[in-house]
Amino acid sequence: MHPSILGQFPVVRPRRLRQSAALRQLVRETTLSARQFVLPLFVRSGKKLRRPIAAMPGVAQLSLDEMLADVTAAVEAGVPAVLLFGIPDTKDTKASGAYAKNGIVQQAVRLLKREYPDLLVVTDVCLCEYMAHGHCGLVQQDARGARILNDPTLKLLARSAVSHAEAGADIIAPSDMMDGRVRAIREALDAAGFTETPIMSYAAKFASAFYGPFREAAESAPKFGDRRSYQMDAANANEALREVALDIQEGADIVMVKPALAYLDILWRVKSEFGLPTAAYNVSGEYSMIKAAAAQGWVDERALTLETLLALRRAGADIIITYHAVEAARWLRAG
Ligand code: PBG
């Protein structure tokens, strides 16, 4: 509240606007709706396969038939979009599975677009799930140790993005954090004729312990070292704005902040500074914490989940990527 307003009206009573549910709805500043949700999915080959992820109750790696079942439930609940992660049968040091024409994500996209043409299919573009060493880029090992090869990685990321677009992906979401990848992907998509395919970049992605459960889900934990040479330091907010600015210059259409809950200040600053469609990734560890506490009976799961998602909206998120998507959509519908 502006101080001069407070000074002029010392007897204002905020409670006046809280007297009934209808009144509270009328003056509500932020809305939460399933229309903003994106549901992440982990797909792998096989039939009737549903491999639960221990640290993420309710989330599983799915074969494509099972994926369709989950997507049917999501669509019925009103979730408009999914984000695909692939777990390939084999991994190597070139991440071949990431850009294989018949890779698992490419198959999943084709199937989803055939069965659900109106569903928005977002694909995560990264190499870590496809690399034997679990890093997001090409790695050079020599006497000095291991280093990420930024520029050679860009070609592979661009190839992956084009192969996703060829399969029918609606939005390409690079999560690798290599420098220059948005431009490389934009140029490759344009050259292949996908000038209308938007890029949602994981623009401010922090090196975070909140990704722990995901690495089990995607089987992508690095075999050595960590991701701090490419993901951001949790201490840095101004740097996050520079990362976002760069991605926008390079052609990002939607920018993402990740993780979400411990980074609400970043979300707020990104939205207010750039005004672009902004996504928040409510990551695996954030999900698991609520699930674990709820399983103990320590918190009200429904209330805590909806409060969390609403907070992301209030902090500036237009889009929320969340493993709670289907449950939250149902809760919102039930009112
Ligand atoms: C891959 C990627 C990660 C997540 C999304 N894409 C993990 C990582 O960077 O280690 C994390 C998502 C989550 O925790 O839910 N680069």
Structure description:
The protein is α/β, with parallel strands linked by helices. The chain has a single domain (31-334), classed as TIM Barrel (Alpha-Beta Barrel), CATH 3.20.20. The chain contains 13 helices and twelve strands. It has helices at residues 3-8, 21-26, 64-77, 96-99, 104-115, 150-167, 181-191, 212-217, 238-250, 264-274, 284-295, 301-314, 325-334; strands at 37-44, 50-52, 60-62, 81-87, 120-125, 138-142, 145-149, 171-174, 200-205, 254-258, 278-282, 319-322. Strands 1, 2, 3, 4, 5, 8, 9, 10, 11 and 12 form a ten-stranded mixed beta sheet that branches. The protein has a two-stranded antiparallel sheet with strand order 6-7. α5 runs parallel beside α6. The longest helix has 18 residues, at 150-167. The chain is globular. The mean pLDDT is 95. Ligand PBG is lined by residues 124, 126, 128, 136, 175-176, 211, 214-215, 227, 283-284.
